Amino acid sequence: MEEQKVTPKQVQKPGGGPLAAVWDFFASVKLTVILLIVLALVSVIGTVIDQTEPAKNLQMLAGMFGPANAQGALEFLVKSGLTNMYHSWWFVGLLSMLSANIFVCTIERLPRTIAIVTIRQEPLTDESLKSVNMKDEKRMKADASSVKEKAKAALKSMGYNPKEAEVDGEIHLYAEKGKLTRWGVYVVHASILVVFVGALIGSFWGYKAYVQIMEGQSVDAAQLTNKPLLRNLGDEVPLGFQVRCDKFELETYASGMPSGYYSTLTVIDGGKEVAHKRIRVNDPLDHKSIRFFQSSYGPAPGNAILILGISPKQGGEEKFIEVRQGGTVPLEGTPYFLNVGQVFANVVMGPEGPVVEGNEYEGSSGANVVILDKDKNVVETIAALQRFPSQEPKSVPFNIHIGDYKVGPGAKYYTGLQVTYDPGVWVVWIGCILMVLGILIAFFTSHKRVWIRIKPTDKSASTVTIAGSVNKNKYSFEADFKKLVEKVESH
Amino acid sequence: MAFDINIKFFEIATFSYLFAMVFYICYLAFKNQTVGKIASGITYFGLLAHTVSIGVRWWESYKMGADIGHIPISNLFESMSFGAWTIILIYSLVEMKYKNRTFGAFIMPVAFLAMTYIFVAPNISKGIEPLVPALKSYWLHIHVITSFLGYAAFAISFGVSLMYLIVNTQEKDRVYFFWTVCIGLVVAVFAVLIADAVQLTQSVFAQGQGKHMMEGSFRSSIPAVVALSYVFLVAILAVSWALGMKIRDMLAGFANTSEQLDEVAYKTIAIGFPLLTVGIITGAVWANSAWGTYWGWDPKETWSLITWLIYAAYLHARLTRGWRGKRAAILSIIGFLAVIFTFLGVNLLLSGLHSYGAAG
Ligand code: HEM
Known about the structure:
Chain A is of the alpha+beta class and 491 residues long. Chain A contains ten helices and 22 strands. In chain A, strand 7 (258-269) and strand 8 (272-280) form a beta hairpin. The longest helix of chain A is centred in the first third of the chain and has 30 residues, at 89-118. Chain B is mainly alpha-helical and 360 residues long. The structure holds protoporphyrin IX containing FE. Protoporphyrin IX containing FE sits between chains A (29, 32, 36, 98, 101-102, 105, 185, 188-189, 192, 439, 442-443, 472) and B (312, 315-316, 319-320).
């Protein structure tokens, strides 16, 4: 097949100067295609370079440039915004260009669409017959008015509402449908701008924070975990009301794997208890558009009991000892003591070592185990793990591993809540709905026009001309058109 | 395992797709209508078995316990199986509508290899597992289903576009180079996946550490294995390049359909694009209801956006700049390579938050 080329329509702008040049630059659909592809390409970078924590890239960089240069390479990445790429000035710049592109293209094309949509359909002429997509002509052995009735019925049965006219003794029927579907593309493009506006509102006025509440206690502020444009990371955000955790519950499957966890929260606003809800993952508490998500949990300090497996480095039998979180026990056969610091119920192995997963339970615990000398001075701290190999201590001839982890009977828990506030989210959803509607209209509907001209040749015969035009989806229109022709010309 | 009737049907479906693939290739080679009809028959049979497998798995999950029961699209095995099922389903519909069996030889290998891989890979669990709490959401199901339907449509557009390029090849030019390399890459990736699965029975995966793809080949700790893998890749590419003209001759008899191929490739993208859009949006709704953020730029999300952008570029190039034929076909192929990466690469090469897709 020959490669077809469609020459883009040139809109002649009066005047000139730099402003017009910028306008013309953004008026091009070629720019759209380039921008979309460039956005796709640079987005790839952000999936290779870890965006959550710059230091997570050290290992990869060490592999690429050697361990000696890794730190320098990381600094370069951080400076150029590559470790927080999707918020860097140049990525935001690309999105702004896309927005400008959409805006200018829309304005450029608007007059033509308005013209098409407002213009009234005219009866068929020999001139206009030349530019239609489909036509059919036949002599029929029937008089004009009976052909007209049949044609009218055929049009109506296919959902058209025909207009009639008589020009020079010829009978004209003509109808169109789906005129407004021409706006589908505009809806799609506007929806993208709407989504952007919603995202902007969120990044200026919204925030994401985290708070831990012990059972029975309450809080009135949370710590920011992302950086909204108008605040600093780590800032406390006042909630404007108090939240109390009345109770935390953990449910398990028969296998012991947690199947769900619940916190019963009470909101105290202006000294009154105004809301009360048992929340769980996926089902947050919402007060004044601030949402509290169940995100993690753990035993309140001093409530976890670790069973540590102690095995001699040169081999030998493993011994188990129980240590309460925060407690200190002597390490048999050495002058050292072990102290258990923070305990995490959900540790996974990241590419660079163990990480605590805030959100998902992994059935694998970890703890910081501190090795103390006889005067209780800290010698070293190791990460002891349950499912993965623990860090090897240097000061003692033993390896320390978590054998199991339990929570003492009647123990108290803390609930870890993610706090989010995003005033732009509804704007984003409206944009999304518009986008889907717009795409459906743009792809699957079309503006169809049909004309029927009946020319009486004598008393009992006439020539029928049927013509049709469509702005897209020609194939399905072709089938429709054939059906119409059959209906009109059948006996 | 008590609950493995679904696996039996899965096996039947996999073998059916293998036989269908052989028959479709023979159909191309000998242009015999009966062979083509047999190929279609086997495909429909496989699709039926596959449907039963998914349905039975669903039922079995409820039999295991009311709190375990869930629609079977929650781990890598289930979602890949569902993906292959949608590919075959959409392919069957396209085959019936366009009365053209030529794409079968391109679609069947994709489904067959995907299913074989998830079946033999030791790090992909085939069992029915309880869902972690975050995954119990209807939005998530709609998200997975629409995304997969979209990806399946793109898979077909990929097969059809590849075929378009092949039948329109006259000489060993740049386009020839492009499509032979694509075929070579796809074959090599799947060969490596299967080699991985066969080799790495215990060593890396058993400790729950290595979850990366290609640790049995390109990312092996043994230099000789790495070297061999590269030799193998180059060899496959060379073979594909050398045999390209043979492949073209095999398909040349269908050259008169090339305009139809172009049209089918576009139509399937026009179906896939809205589905992917809905998929991304429902994913965002789910993320917002589960984590409080609708978009987190995690690798999986970002790759689905990359895919979306590529197909948006395709649509604009085609509808407003008049791209047809070879250029459009190349863009459609690149789009599907991004789909494959979204699917396999992100899960197995990059790490992400999406536990339902993660291996293990
Ligand atoms: C990611 C962003 C975009 C998406 C998802 C998108 C989507 C679409 C869709 C679905 C269509 C309908 C195709 C059809 O007629 O069936 C379309 C057409 C079009 N788009 Fe976009 N678009 C995007 C960005 C842009 C931008 C930035 C421009 C700027 C110039 C643009 C210009 C056009 C034009 C001129 C058309 C053709 C309208 C016509 O057929 O009259 N698009 N776009």
